[in-house]
Amino acid sequence: MLKVGVLGAGHLGKIHLRLLNQSAKYELIGFYDPDEINAKKVADEFGYSYYENINTLIEAVDVVDIVTPTLSHYDCAKKVMKSGKHIFIEKPITNTLQEAEELIELESKHNVKGQVGHVERFNPAFIAVKEKIENPMFIETHRLAEFNPRGTDVPVVLDLMIHDIDAILSVVESDVRQINASGVSVISNSPDIANARIEFKNGCVANLTASRISLKNMRKSRFFQKDAYISVDFLEKKVEVVKMKDAPESPGDFDMILQNAEGIKKQIYFENPDIESNNAIFEELETFADAINNGTEPIVSLTQGTAALRVALQVIQAFDNKN
Fold first, then answer.
1. CA 243 to CA 225: how far, in whole Å?
2. Domain Gfo/Idh/MocA-like oxidoreductase N-terminal, which positions (predicted)?
């Protein structure tokens, strides 16, 4: 078992503590949180070992799970990696691109592994259809959330949209060519609503919308590709796969046939992939343990987390260019 410690015992940190404590692949050693009052409350309520010194905790473990505010990600990760320990780090990987790129260098220099917590990669609905998404040419995403003061210290792009940016980059095998975006601040000092149009060099276009002041929650993505339409509902964990193929010469009574202006006939049919229920946060932590134990690449590497941050920051820069 890998000895693991957690940095941060806020809302998400407590979830990570609980799941790591349940895991057969990790031995939860304890946690550190600079808020001593909250830390002692968590320790008393759940029985986890509270370390008053961050260095003492790092020395006692093999892996450190960083679930702190984004602004502290870089300093925490740097300290851990220089100690020769592996890191799981929540998204976004860091606050700046320079910080993220330095962590990639530290990963190689100190021969450790790192994984970024882009949890939607482990959503069972996305897992069920990811292999069916082949060369999509148009993508549309909507990630809407009811207002929650937690997370408003960063723009909605880094809070919400980056989930969809990472998912899109994992299926579009092309570099970004151009980004146009708009953002509006309604309640916070940073944008609460954002829309981005990302054009890739291979011709694919992605249109992303994110809001953290919606009246209802929504997390949906739609992928359009040659002869197929794939819809993923990350919130409800449902998928819809609609495909087309050349129509048979003698279609059956219940076959759905479309004919275009050129007279070409296509048959529409539906696929229903199996969706295996899981806890996505638990899954990402477990697969990171596997990557460490097997010497393999983490599913969401520091390089991939950096790529998502790079695009997210380009979206934010596109806001500034309009002002």
1. 10
2. 2-118
The residues pairing with 241 across neighbouring beta strands, listed in sequence order, are 230, 271
pLDDT digits 0-9 by tens, 29-42: 999 999 999 999 99
Asked if 3 contacts 65 with a C-beta cutoff of 8 angstroms, the reply is no
- Among residues 201, 127, 209, 203, which one has the least CA distance to residue 170? 127
Considering only CA atoms, give the Rg of the chain: 22
pLDDT for res 94: 96
- Which structural domain, as residue segments, surrounds residue 67? 2-120+280-300
228 is written with which tokens? 């197929």
Q: Are strands 26-32 and 265-271 parallel, antiparallel or unpaired?
A: unpaired
CB 163 within 8 A of CB 118: yes
Given a cut of 80, is residue 253 above it in pLDDT?
no
Same domain, residue pair 25 and 150: no
CA 161 to chain CA mean position, Å: 9
User: What is the average pLDDT value for the chain, to the nearest integer?
Assistant: 93
Whether 160 is in a domain gets the answer: yes
Q: Are residues 87 and 178 in the same domain?
A: no
Residues 116 and 242 in one domain: no
> What's the rounded Cα separation, in Å, for the pair 41 and 36?
8
Judgement on whether residues 155 and 267 belong to the same structural domain of the protein: yes
